[in-house]
């Protein structure tokens, strides 16, 4: 059986998750207290792939620190630096030396795919396709790359954000390729926005008679580019957690349903209604945590209420009556303001969105 590699793209800027991604790689924002990128690497390892090239951008040092040599996932990782975000096909172009003449799976590091890629990989190995794309049904295909399929499920045409979509099948950020893709990415021209589009490269293959197959996602998929997507992914993962309490919970507290309290965490005089994750070293004091909330390590929630939210490490919330549908970064302090004067004092990063009730 021919060797199969993986190419993971982890170089994007994550502009839709600013200001969080001004200081953190979007692929490392956690879902259920685990970076999104780690779910992808685990899926690759579960599919029997061991050699992985990771495309890096300006957040390269942070990605390297989080992944290392890949041994924690059972992978052998090689890093490939991309000088600028010049498109998915450009990533394939600069990875030519690493990929050689091997088949490979290309996985977008900020995509969240529940259920893994093992079935896709096995199907590609057994086929005579030169490429295979992953598709999922969406409500509004005009927002995505869309595939038009033939009678046997082969891809006839790919359209990027079409005004009149030929189907409701959007292209998911996981692709299978034979070495033919290298000829395609060298042949295409940059799109109007200056990037080499992978959809153009695949269309080049289709136009020249190469077989491109499709595989319909039967699990859950999200591009985690926006706050609502992150919270939805967090909810999906938390749906599957089991109750597990290692930390300290006092007699005045109540844990309801599927709640995980990590070792070293402390819960005092509080109510936690699962599914909820509380990370190691975190303190929950005189507070309420509602469903679909994940709190990372060494946080403090005191005299506050938090629900349907993600809270990153070493942050604190004190004296705030209600927070929901929120993503709180690392080393953040959230406190209640004095009741008088009736004014709001804010320090907010670029490109932020703030809602304040009057």
List the helices and strands and how they pair.
Elements: E1 4-10, E2 30-31, E3 34-35, H1 36-46, E4 51-56, H2 60-67, E5 76-81, H3 88-94, H4 96-99, E6 103-108, E7 111-114, H5 118-125, E8 131-137, E9 145-149, E10 155-160, E11 169-177, H6 180-187, H7 198-207, E12 212-216, E13 220-223, H8 227-238, E14 244-245, E15 248-249, E16 254-256, E17 259-261, E18 266-268, E19 271-273, E20 276-278, E21 283-285, E22 288-289, E23 293-295, E24 300-302, E25 305-307, E26 310-311, E27 316-318, E28 323-324, E29 327-328, E30 333-335
Parallel strand pairs: 1-4, 1-6, 4-5, 8-12, 14-17, 15-18, 16-19, 17-20, 18-21, 19-22, 20-23, 21-24, 22-25, 23-26, 24-27, 25-28, 26-29, 27-30
Antiparallel strand pairs: 2-3, 6-11, 7-13, 8-11, 9-10
Helix pairs in contact: 3-6, 6-7
Explain what this protein looks like in three dimensions:
The protein has 358 residues and is of the alpha/beta class. It has two domains: 4-237, Spore Coat Polysaccharide Biosynthesis Protein SpsA, Chain A, CATH 3.90.550; 243-335, Hexapeptide repeat proteins (UDP N-Acetylglucosamine Acyltransferase, domain 1, 3 Solenoid). The protein has eight helices and 30 strands. It has helices spanning 36-46, 60-67, 88-94, 96-99, 118-125, 180-187, 198-207, 227-238, and strands spanning 4-10, 30-31, 34-35, 51-56, 76-81, 103-108, 111-114, 131-137, 145-149, 155-160, 169-177, 212-216, 220-223, 244-245, 248-249, 254-256, 259-261, 266-268, 271-273, 276-278, 283-285, 288-289, 293-295, 300-302, 305-307, 310-311, 316-318, 323-324, 327-328, 333-335. It has a seven-stranded mixed beta sheet with strand order 5-4-1-6-11-8-12, sandwiched between helices. Strands 14-17-20-23-26-29 form a six-stranded parallel beta sheet. Strands 15-18-21-24-27-30 form a six-stranded parallel beta sheet, with no helix packed on it. Helix 3 crosses helix 6 (180-187) and helix 6 crosses helix 7 (198-207). The chain is elongated.
């Amino acid at each position: 059986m021919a060797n199969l590699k993986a190419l993971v793209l982890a170089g994007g800027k994550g502009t839709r998750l600013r200001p969080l991604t001004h200081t953190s790689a979007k692929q490392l924002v956690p879902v259920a207290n685990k970076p999104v990128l780690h779910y992808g690497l685990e899926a690759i390892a579960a599919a029997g792939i061991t050699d992985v090239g990771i495309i890096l951008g300006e957040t390269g040092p942070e990605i390297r620190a989080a992944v290392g040599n890949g041994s924690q996932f059972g992978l052998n990782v090689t890093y490939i630096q991309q000088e600028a975000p010049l498109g998915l096909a450009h990533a394939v172009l600069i990875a030519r030396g690493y990929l050689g003449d091997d088949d490979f799976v290309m996985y977008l590091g900020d995509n969240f795919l529940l259920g893994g890629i093992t079935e896709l990989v096995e199907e590609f190995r057994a086929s005579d396709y030169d490429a295979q794309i992953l598709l999922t049904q969406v409500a509004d295909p005009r927002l995505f790359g869309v595939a038009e399929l033939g009678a046997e499920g082969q891809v006839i045409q790919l359209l990027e954000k079409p005004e009149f979509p030929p189907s409701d099948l959007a292209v998911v950020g996981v692709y299978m390729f034979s070495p033919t893709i290298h000829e395609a990415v060298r042949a295409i021209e940059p799109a109007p926005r200056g990037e080499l589009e992978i959809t153009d490269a695949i269309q080049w293959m289709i136009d020249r008679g190469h077989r491109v197959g499709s595989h319909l996602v039967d699990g859950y998929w999200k591009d985690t580019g926006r706050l609502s997507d992150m919270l939805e992914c967090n909810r999906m993962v938390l749906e599957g957690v089991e109750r597990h309490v290692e930390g300290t919970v006092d007699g005045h507290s109540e844990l309801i349903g599927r709640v995980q309290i990590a070792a070293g965490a402390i819960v005092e005089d509080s109510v936690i209604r699962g599914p909820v994750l509380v990370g190691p070293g975190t303190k929950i004091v005189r507070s309420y945590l509602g469903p679909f909330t994940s709190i990372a390590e060494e946080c403090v929630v005191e005299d506050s209420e938090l629900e349907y939210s993600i809270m990153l490490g070493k942050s604190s919330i004190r004296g705030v009556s209600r927070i929901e549908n929120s993503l709180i970064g690392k080393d953040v302090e959230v406190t209640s303001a004095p009741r008088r004067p009736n004014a709001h004092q804010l320090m907010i990063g670029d490109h932020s969105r703030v809602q304040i009730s009057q």
